[in-house]
Amino acid sequence: MNKAYKFRMYPTPQQLTKIEKTFDGVRFIFNKMLTDKLAYYNETGKQLKNTPAQYKTAFPWLREVDSLALANAQLNLQDAYTRFFRNPAAGFPKFKSKKHSRKAYTTNCVNGNIVIRDGAVKLPKIGLVKIKLHRTIPDSYKLKSVTVKCDFKGRYYACVLFEYEPQKTDVLPQSCIGVEYSDKGLFTDSNGREIGYPPYIQKTLKKLRREKKRLANMKYKSNNRDKQHKKVLKIREKFYRQRDDFLHKQSRQIANAYDCVCIKDPAQGVSYDFGWALFKFFLKYKLLEKGKSLVMTDNIALSKMLYSFQAV
Question: Which of 1, 43, 50, 277 has its CB surrounded by the most CB atoms within 10 Å?
Fold first, then answer.
């Protein structure tokens, strides 16, 4: 299984310059390769197979950028390009805007080029960057890749992906609970409890909707709209943090208390809160880590009865 940890980064001014140059390089190579693919397809009707290495002669500054970050940008473009031709409804790849695009790049761990030690992470072409190492990483975890990104407030983060072996032993179900999506809250369980977002999250969500409505009524590219957009981003970040923290706590309580969880999704075609999908994801990997069972079912009462019988 894979697990990612997010650490706050504190780069020096020199490191900051290199990180920003990598952001620019990833965006540039994505747009340049997409432009050439479009031109080649319009002329020949075929797909062009180009790589970042082909552009380093014409643009020498790309040699100063992490080559693995450029390679990942190529893979992302190729994946989006192929997906469009396979299913046009997926949408054609869009060019990355310098002002509005997400500032991020991913680099892979090859031959120990990425290391975490002494409260810092070593990145290719950048060196040791100080991070807030807020948790201990087990020695058995294998580092796979790092995604460096910058948020709208100018804060830098390193999202480090690890590979690890989950618990092998399966737990014999001694206790079971059913969980079903509820349109009145978040979910209801077979014990009769109905769990919804607490008032403080509902208050933040209500404020977010109000400010987004104000943003929609403002003139495009005006100064007031830019200020309102930053305000919306700040409130949205607060809502995401509150929601994820609440879902993590709810899923952890269930994973610790029960050996088997039966989940019933809403009927096909019924819209539901994205928090429900997140809750299922959190619950699934927490149960797998403990060697416990997760069952997707259409009949919670029957599934719970069968697992209770198996335990007896």
Answer: 50
If one counts the domains in the chain, the total is 2
How deeply is 304 buried, as exposed, middle or buried, from its count of CB atoms within 10 A (0-12, 13-18, 19+)? buried
Average pLDDT over residues 303-307: 50
Question: Which pLDDT score is estimated for 220?
Answer: 86
**Is 208 within the bounds of a domain?**
yes
Residue that has been written with the tokens 């390769």 in this structure: 33
Same domain? For 68 and 137 the reply is yes
Residues contacting residue 171 through CB under 8 Å, at least 6 positions apart: 259, 290, 291, 292, 293
What's the whole-number mean pLDDT along residues 129-142? Answer: 92
Tens-digit pLDDT profile for residues 217-251: 999 889 999 999 999 999 999 999 999 999 999 99
By C-alpha distance, which of 288, 291, 290, 287 is closest to 177? 287
Q: Is the pLDDT of residue 122 over 90?
A: yes
The residues near 260 (Cβ < 8 Å, ≥ 6 apart) are 173, 175, 176, 177, 292, 293, 294, 295, 307
Per the structure block, which two tokens stand in for 107? 């680099």
- Tens of pLDDT, residue by residue over 78-95, are 998 888 888 888 788 889
Pairing of strands 293-296, 260-264: parallel
**b/e code 199-223 from CB counts within 10 Å (16+ = b):** eebeebbeebeebeeeeeeeeeeee
Position 170 in a domain? no
